[in-house]
């Protein structure tokens, strides 16, 4: 079966039909998540639960995040990613610092939970009220988990061996992109989700500062390396100097990520100082919820 030409091959052109099918699967998955979110939001509005944190601007942000994910799979961005390591890095940054924050602003935990069957909602409620859920609600623990996860995913997939494996296997490539989106979604949700679910104050600033520094460190390694760190076919596959392609990729990672993280970190820091000056509890770190009965299934927000 011949697929539409709009669905290009894997990076390096070795994906063939397998890559096209993985792209179709990605598009269907993104569409399915959007439909589930819309169903959940509709259910919340029907129950007059808009106050739970899903306002029209948040719903619009989530839709924009899904649109960015779709655009990242199609030309011209996908084509640019095929032509150079720097273009591939640009695609990664779109997933992590554009789509990630938009999805986090959508506050998707509650709507996606409401879209589940009743039995599945109860399972989510039990997980959230269980030992692991209570452990993760401690702000310092959540900061450590999402910070280490984001940094680990970013560094792992830009090591030469995993990166090369993603070039050769459409399945590994799909897992790579999925892990980027998931890690970024969790990170940005920690500071951009509805106020009752986000980390505030100094811990939010430290989280963003730490993530920004580790991302900048990886960008610096790629930019200042005296020789190519990746196999020849992974750098400048369409022609050009491999070392220059690697250095440009380092800058593509370094600058956009640092700009987004720094801007948000400064915003969080100013809000924190303002809250301390005026004694606003909402701008301080939220206390963990103590032991108690499980939250109602329709009020469960997944992390």
From TrEMBL:
Keywords carried by this UniProt record: Cell membrane, Membrane, Transmembrane, Transmembrane helix
Keyword Plastid attributed: no
Subcellular location as annotated: Cell membrane
Region spans: Disordered: 281-303
Name used for this protein in its record: Cytochrome c oxidase assembly protein
Source species of the chain: Actinophytocola glycyrrhizae
Lineage, opening ranks: Bacteria, Bacillati, Actinomycetota, Actinomycetes, Pseudonocardiales
Membrane-spanning segments: 20-38, 59-81, 93-118, 139-157, 177-193, 205-227, 247-270
Membrane topology: Multi-pass membrane protein
Keyword Transmembrane among UniProt keywords: yes
